[in-house]
Structures are given as C-alpha cells and as structure tokens.
C-alpha cells in the first residue's frame, strides 16, 4: 500500500501540455494584455472569441499562434444553432470550448494580468492549473492539510486509505488578487476593497457542495467535462448577464458529482486589474440575484439518474429538470433549457464521437 | 440588505472571553510547555486531566489558575459511569469538557508550542480560535475567497444573499506546523516530512462532508456541541487507540449538520514538536485503519431523525445506529455504543438542564 503523497506524485515539475491545451479569450478590444503573459502563453495556441461588432479589427500582439472567431464566424459555423451562443456578454467564450480540439482548456479575461506570489515571483497561472488538472482530487473526504498530492503534504491521520487514490480532476478554478469577484451590491458597498491575501492552497470542493465558479481564471479537462461547460444565454436580448460562469459552475458541479470527478479551487492567482462598473453590473445582475435564491436549492437537490453515463446525457437530463422546475420561475428558463439542448447538438456536431 | 462582511463584523479585535472559556489539557507529565504559552494562557482557567498513574505528581508552572483531575478523581466523581472515560489515552481529555462550566473549551496537547506566522510574529492560537467561534460559518454554500467575515474579504459574486448571515459556529479546528498529524504508515514512509506551509485561511467544512478532526489544537462551543464531544473508548483495555478525536469528529460533524451549525478548519497553527513513535502508533492504530473503511460510509450515510432537537437526543440516536450497524463489524462497537449512552448520562448528571 502506497502511503505517501510522494509515492503517488505523477506531475512533472514543469508540465507544459503544449499540444494538449488551448487558451480561450473572449474580448471586444485589442489584446495588449497578452504582452505581459508572453513568457507563459506564447507556447500555446489561442482561441479568441470576439464579442460585439464583428467589423471591428482586434489587434493581437506579434508572435502569438491564434485563431479568431467573430459573430459572423459563429453564425456561419453553427447556422441556426448559433442561437445558443450569447452575444454582447463574455458568455460567448464557450464557443471557443466547442471549436477547440484539445484535451484541456484555459480561459482568462482580458483584464487579468500576471500576479506575484509573496516572494515577489511572477506566477505562471497556466502551469499551476495544469498541475491541478493532472493531480487527482479528493471530493469524497476532506483533507485538513489541503491538497494531499502536493510536495510536502499528504493525507492526515483518519483519512481512509481506500480513498487515497482520489478522483480524476475535471476543473481547476483559480482566484484573483487585487479586484475581487464581487457582485454589484457588494461592489457598491465596498468600492475600495481589494484582495491582498495570498492563500497558498489548492483544495477540492467536496461532493454535494456547490460553489460560485468564476470564468475569469479557469481551466478544465475538455474531454471530461467540456460538453457541460456551457455559459448559457446572457447579454444581448436576455434578461440577465454576469451569471454565465455561475450557471456553468452549478451545472458542472452537479455533473462532476454524478460522474465521480473532482473540482479544485485556490491557486493560481491572477491580478485582476479593473472592476467593472457596479451600476451597469446591477442592471445585468438584478434578475440573477433574485433568481439565484431559487436556482441554488434547485441545483442542491438535482439528481442525475444513474443510467446517465456520458456528460451529454447528464446535461440533456439537467435541461429537462431546468425546463420542468425552473420554467415556473420565469419563461427565460424554458428558453435556456432549449438552448442547453441546442448547445449539446452543436457540440456533438463539431465533436463527433468518431473523431476521438 | 447588508451586503458587506464589514457590515456584519461582530468580532472585537482582541476577544478574550476570560470568564467563558476553559483550556483542557490531557497529560502524563510536568506541564513545562505552559511556560511558552504564558502570555496567552495565563488569563484563563486550566482543566488538567492527568492520565496514567494517579500517584504521580504533575508540576504546573507558577501563576496558572488550574484544577487537576487524576484517575482517582474521575472514579470518585463519576462512580460506575467513569467506565466511559478512557485510561492511558489522551481520550481522557473529554472528562475535562464534562466538568467545565464554561461556554467555550480550548484543548491542546502538551507537545504543542507557540508557532510563528510568516512575518515571524508569535501566533496567539487561542485568540484566533475565539474569533473563529464568534464568527458565523458558511456550511451551506462554498465561498471561494474562504472566510467571508474576515476583514478584507466578503461573499463573492453568485453567493445567495439569503445565506449570507451564515450559521452558528460550533467547532474551530486548528492546524499544525512542523510535525504533521500523520497516521503510523505515513509516519513510517515519510519520517522526515515537516509541514512548513502556512496557509492563511479559515474555511467552513461544507454540510454533508466529513473530515479528520485532530484533538491537538481544537476549540468548540461547549454549550452547543459539548455533549457530542465524546472521545470514545481508547487505550487501556481497548482494541484501539489514536482514533479518539477522529471518532468525536465524525460524530460532531453529523450532529452539526443536523442542527445547522458550522465547523471551521484552518487557522490557527500551533508548533507540533514531537512525532509520537510510529511503531507504537501502528499497534494502537491498526484496528482503526481497518475499521475506518467501514466507519466512514457509516457516518456518511447516517441520518439523524428530524425530531431530535437536542444534542443529547442526537447523540443517543447515533449510539443506537452504532450498535445496530457497527456492532456487526466488531463487538467493540457494542461496548462503544454503551459508553456513548453512559457518557450522555454522566454529562447530564454533571450538567443538569436547570443549571443553565
């Protein structure tokens, strides 16, 4: 019986996965922020999803390997199914997940910069995400010394040995120094609050526990959970915005719990530079703030039937429950349930099973 | 609607609770370790539970306010019910919880010293525990920026507003720098591993999630959860040792979940100086290592009936389930179920409801 985390370590010290990971960036402007990320991102392929006016030309710094999709491209590629991809909201980023052919995705906002650790060293966020994804998770029992697979750590006394192999990690949720990811009311009440605390930990969110997943600094195993990483209907023509990542987070957590996969949160940090306008955010969020009071109990009690063996099956099942139970809350959720099905159809079209 | 953690802050900057907290220390030797804790512990009353030979004289440094109980005292006070208090195992500490008349308990091992934070400042562990206990917990939804009530932190976007008042905190589980709390197999495999990582976080263990509770550096609200903080039958005459705190941790977590109370883990750290002998530990633990594979599923699926409204009722109910389901695993658990009932009887005798 292997007792030590050291004995289990499977992660190379500098995992690159150059040919297995795409970076997805939603944007409406020139991508000058990439200059700061050059040492870390340049080896990777970028998928840029241009939101808003497709005639606008987005500048990408020299030397990056990228493909760019604007609204016209999305409409051309998906045809009528393009209706499931949001417009004028960073939710459009999920189109990038769909067209990628790689095993892993890292997605980042264009107002996120390289953060420094307490020693002053620049943090390679991508490298930490890859470590998180390549290491198992521990969703079935809590380890008080945090990630037991990390060097210098292990499972503590009382942790069942049969659970020490852990579970595959599907999602790695990174955090933010400087501007915290607050909702509009909290932004309004605490306009000057900054996150200055570097918490040196990665932990698995336990099975059965929901969390607020932020899309600003997020990585996932596309082959495992990609089909559930749908960011919903937000922005233009919709009664809600800024809940795209939250919606995806609740869906993927319920499905990861069903499939026996882990979701991690904690390291790595990025430097979030610019708080969005709280007055604009309030307008986008107010329905979400109201509806989430119904959505959380819905997802907390959602059960995926045992015979759902693929993420696609789980997701279509979830869409049925959304229609049946949330349709009463607002007609928007019936439209969203339709879009969830359209998303899966589009996903399967672009990612036929035979291609694997 | 109060949106900010700042608006909710209820914790004075130096909470003392001098007249509301007892420090419980199980020991078999002179308490020289208290010298280092003098600046932090001297204002408090100590309850020393002397394990082993009662004729041995334990030296307590000058100036501390304490009461000391040895085995003869326990036998005299509890009479035949003293059978529920372990002998030759630090599980005997729970006798101190029973004889205390205070609202809060802090318990610490006598090989635990004052740790330093990354800035080199000595950590007042007790002060942090009191902060943890006086602040609400968040067991029903995960906050990615950890304790939302801490200065400089709050609830992140997507956290339901209706849940932001939190839940009463029943338990504060602190961690250890230097010697980590490993089981004997891990100690044997990694004899030189030391915990050097200071994780600057306190978090609530979500509802429905079990954790390995270590009794080395632990505080709790005795008025809330005291009657469930029973450390079981361990050591002399028992087929198991070093699972006293684990047993208590599984029981209190199931009951806190039922009652809607929170359990926190993380800060504060103490400096754990001496690893116990792994060969001796292996002998004490081997049954526990084997049995915990059955115990964890048992506690994960344990449900307390809705009509159990007091901790005493919950605990007696749990003892019935232990008898019915774990009695088959080993006759030891039938004996333990009896002891659980005896413990509650003794607790009620020493803490009659009218005294509150």
TrEMBL record, chains A, B:
InterPro entries, per the entry = Nucleotide-diphossugar_trans, RGP, RGP_fam
Q: Which GO terms describe its biological process?
A: cell wall organization; plant-type cell wall organization or biogenesis; UDP-L-arabinose metabolic process
Cite the GO molecular-function annotations of the record: UDP-arabinopyranose mutase activity
Q: Name the UniProt key words of this record, in alphabetical order.
A: Cell wall biogenesis/degradation, Glycoprotein, Golgi apparatus, Isomerase
Q: Which Pfam families match?
A: RGP
Role played: Probable UDP-L-arabinose mutase involved in the biosynthesis of cell wall non-cellulosic polysaccharides.
Protein name in UniProt: UDP-arabinopyranose mutase
Originating organism: Spirodela intermedia (Intermediate duckweed)
């Amino acid at each position: 019986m292997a007792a030590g985390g050291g004995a289990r370590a499977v992660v190379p010290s500098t995992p690159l996965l150059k040919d297995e990971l795409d970076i997805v960036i939603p944007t409406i402007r020139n991508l000058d922020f990439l200059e700061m990320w050059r040492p870390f991102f340049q080896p990777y392929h970028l998928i840029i999803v241009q939101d808003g006016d497709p005639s606008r030309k987005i500048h990408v710094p020299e030397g990056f390997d990228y493909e760019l999709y604007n609204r016209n491209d999305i409409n051309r590629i998906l045809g009528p199914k393009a209706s499931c991809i949001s417009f004028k909201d960073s939710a459009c980023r999920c189109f990038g997940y769909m067209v990628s052919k790689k095993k892993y995705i890292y997605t980042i906002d264009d107002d996120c910069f390289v953060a420094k650790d307490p020693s002053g060293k620049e943090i390679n966020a991508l490298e930490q995400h890859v470590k998180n994804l390549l290491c198992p998770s521990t969703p079935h029992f809590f380890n008080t010394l945090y990630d037991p697979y990390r060097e210098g750590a292990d499972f503590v006394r009382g942790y069942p040995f049969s659970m020490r192999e852990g579970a595959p990690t599907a999602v790695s949720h990174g955090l933010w120094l400087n501007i915290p990811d607050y909702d509009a009311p909290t932004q309004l009440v605490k306009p000057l609050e900054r996150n200055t605390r570097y918490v040196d930990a990665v932990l698995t969110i336990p099975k059965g526990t929901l969390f607020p997943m932020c899309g600003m600094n997020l990585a996932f195993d596309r082959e495992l959970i990609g089909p559930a990483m749908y960011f919903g209907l937000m922005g233009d023509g919709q009664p809600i915005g800024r809940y795209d990542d939250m919606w995806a987070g609740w869906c993927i957590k319920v499905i990861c719990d069903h499939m026996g996969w882990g979701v991690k949160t904690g390291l790595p940090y990025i430097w979030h530079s610019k708080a969005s306008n709280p007055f604009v955010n309030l307008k986008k969020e107010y329905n979400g703030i109201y509806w989430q009071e119904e959505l959380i109990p819905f997802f907390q009690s959602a059960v995926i039937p045992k015979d759902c063996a693929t993420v696609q099956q789980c997701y279509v099942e979830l869409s049925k429950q959304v229609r049946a139970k949330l349709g009463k809350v607002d007609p928007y959720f019936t439209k969203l349930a339709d879009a969830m099905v359209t998303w899966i159809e589009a996903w399967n079209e672009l990612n036929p099973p035979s291609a694997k």
